[in-house]
Protein: Inositol-1-monophosphatase
Organism: Nostoc cf. commune SO-36
Amino acid sequence: MTNLQLFLDIATEAALAAGAILQGYLGKLEDAITEKGRPGDLVTVADKASEKVILEILRRHFPQHSILAEESGKLGNQENEYLWAIDPLDGTTNYAHQYPFFAVSIGLLINGVPKVGVIYDPYHNELFRAGTGLGATRNRQPIKVSETSELNKSILVTGFAYDRRETSDNNYAEFSHLTHLTQGVRRSGSASLDMAYVACGRVDGYWERGLSPWDIAAGIILVQEAGGKVTAYDRTSVKIESGRILATNSYIHDSLSSELLRVPPLSSWV
Ligand code: IPD
Ligand code: CA
Ligand code: CA
Ligand code: CA
């Protein structure tokens, strides 16, 4: 068994265990929901319980590896070339409202490059996995991106960062612009599932800003292994720390990138 396969299998074990915890708390949170500081930026006991089990499993198997987890921050030796980027509950707002669209996302970066990714949606029991050279799967069956090649025949998905209320750089203009140019733009509330849906061809492209590495580490390798393309908005290499990402089926990549770079001010559409 290659190392990547081993990493993938242990990440899968962790994601399945965490997903079972999320399912267990769903609809039973009562007062166990708090704000992290910014309005609308929630955290629940489920986020924390999910993260705890993921950390236990990964640290037991890979005690030398470094970790970046949404609720615990940086853990372990940050100099280590292996970094696990963990989102224990991607889609917390959905989850807190019992809107059933959320996931566990676990990505492994080696020297800063995403190599292994697992995204698990426990409500719909969909397990997305990928590793460099190992392909991309949904419930262990190979997946690939869509073949839509024209923006006006495409469906896209995006998201909005929690600081959207305080910043003018907030994705509203892009959302409006692309809504007019495509068959629709969805806002699902789970960045990792947005990328999983690009990977399995349910949407043709995804863009977002204000993201964190744990939102997209797993999704990047999933989209790439499913035949898609992942870059910055301007088609240069994606920088996971920048928080901005463009992930598509590859066919609409250049046209979506061009539109993102020439978005008119919002008022011109109204
Ligand atoms: C959020 C979700 C959402 C995206 C936000 C993320 P969280 O993650 O992925 O879709 O639009 O930018 O912060 O807080 O639910 O893990
Ligand atoms: Ca997230
Ligand atoms: Ca989260
Ligand atoms: Ca969060």
